[in-house]
Write a structure and sequence with these properties.
heterodimer; A: mainly alpha; 2 domains; 9 helices; 0% strand; B: alpha/beta; five-stranded mixed sheet; 5 strands; MnhB (chain A); Multicomponent Na+:H+ antiporter subunit B (chain A)
């Protein structure tokens, strides 16, 4: 038993060293050399090349879109982990609709009224940040987080579990697939209808909306899982 | 100048949120810290990061921490003093410094549960029959009675660390409510 463990251990170390050598070999022999510094390369002509007026959006949706894919993957893995951990907890059938929780006397009148006034504006600013992400500061992640905040403030006013979390989970996985396919087709394989600023802007808006919806559903799933499946 | 002010305020609120005694207060300090952090990012020309920090730090995580602290187990303390006719916050002053504050500190630091204090001037028998509190402090003249259950580990810990929890009170009787029969209680 112990010997096999040791053999696997050595095999792992060998595998890691081999992987490191492959990476260093590829990096030293096949990496692309650019004459200008990276900052100039990213900021010189990004409007014509990517259709974004915001350099940050140009970087995370075009120049370095690979990083965005892995960020989206990371969020999805953490959502799956949260679901896994809270399923493992004994009460799986805790879908509930409790009248006792929904007692307006327990909730502060000030919070209810203020959330009612603020709610549409929060939704509006979230959508604005998503759709305008390629022009002004913001983007999919920030707008999605603001939308999720709006949904979570709903919990403060109306603490009930009438959301279809399964639907949200399926939506999140489908959105991840779409997030992977769109840049692969548009940026890597260059399947573009036209190489104009307008076409690039449409791609930016589409990607930002996908990322925003995905972040929104992911953060909402995490929050509602923690609230309704954990603890007392 | 503005930059120095921001950075010093960040340090102050970070240490407040770490060293505060009350969990809820820590969460609020953390929210203020995140808001200042967002302003700092804006000051350093990073509006994208500032937006993310404002949405996540101030909105999401504050609400999440507040919900989480709501789910933390609460230790329910009831203070009974039948001699007081009209009970208000001033009547609790006599045990504030020598019982309540040290007890709260002990529960938060050592047992890691949230203390919650209620007080009343109803008769102790009625309260114990009708309300389910974890721990009763009963003042009767110069005597102080502590009621609790012998199966409750937190109550056992409080009794074991009595000299740390309760100061300047010499006449204390500890009564385990589940070991006392009804006729004994009548005495």
């Amino acid at each position: 038993m112990k010997e096999t463990n040791k053999a696997i251990y050595i095999l792992r170390i060998l595998f890691a060293v081999f992987g490191a050598f492959v990476v260093i070999f590829l990096f030293l022999n096949h990496s692309e050399k650019i004459d200008t510094p990276l900052m100039d390369y990213f900021t010189a002509d990004f409007l014509a090349e990517t259709g974004a007026q915001n350099a940050v959006a140009a970087i995370y949706l075009n120049y370095r879109v690979f990083d965005t894919l892995f960020e989206a993957l990371m969020l999805m893995v953490s959502v799956m982990e949260v679901i896994n951990v809270s399923w493992a907890n004994k009460h799986a059938e805790q879908y509930r609709f409790e009248e006792a929780d929904f007692n307006r006397k327990n909730n502060s009148e000030i919070v209810i009224r203020m959330v009612g006034i603020i709610y549409p504006f929060v939704l509006l600013i979230g959508l604005y940040i998503i759709i305008n992400g390629h022009v002004s500061p913001g983007g999919g992640f920030q707008g999605g987080a603001i939308l999720a905040t709006a949904l979570i403030t709903r919990y403060l006013v109306y603490p009930n579990f009438d959301l279809d979390l399964d639907m949200l989970e399926r939506l999140e996985k489908f959105l991840f697939l779409a997030i992977v396919t769109t840049p692969v087709l548009y940026v890597f394989m260059q399947l573009q209808p036209a190489d104009t600023v307008l076409s690039h802007s449409i791609y930016m808006i589409f990607m930002n909306s996908l990322i925003g919806l995905k972040v929104f559903s992911g953060l909402s799933i995490i929050f509602y899982r923690f609230v309704f499946y954990e603890g007392l | 100048m503005f930059q120095a002010f921001l950075l010093i305020a960040l340090l102050i609120f970070a240490s407040y949120s770490v060293f505060s005694d009350n969990i809820k207060r820590s969460v609020i300090y953390l929210g203020v810290f995140s808001l200042l952090m967002a302003i700092t990012y804006l000051h350093f020309n990073a509006p994208d990061v500032a937006l993310a920090e404002a949405a996540i730090g101030v909105g999401l995580s504050t609400v999440m921490y507040l919900v989480a602290t709501k789910k933390v187990s609460v230790y329910d303390i009831c203070y009974v003093n039948e001699d007081v006719e009209v009970f208000d916050d001033k009547s609790i002053d006599e045990i504030m410094n020598n019982v309540v504050r040290p007890l709260e500190l002990f529960l938060e630091r050592t047992e890691e549960i949230e203390p919650q204090l209620a007080y009343t001037n109803h008769p102790i028998e009625k309260i114990m029959r009708e309300d389910a509190h974890d721990f009763f402090i009963h003042r009767k003249g110069q005597l102080t009675y502590l009621y609790g259950e012998s199966t409750d580990p937190v109550f056992q810990d409080i009794i074991a660390n009595m000299d740390e929890v309760i100061r300047d009170i010499s006449d204390i009787r500890v009564i385990y409510t589940d070991e006392v029969t009804d006729d004994e209680r009548d005495e």
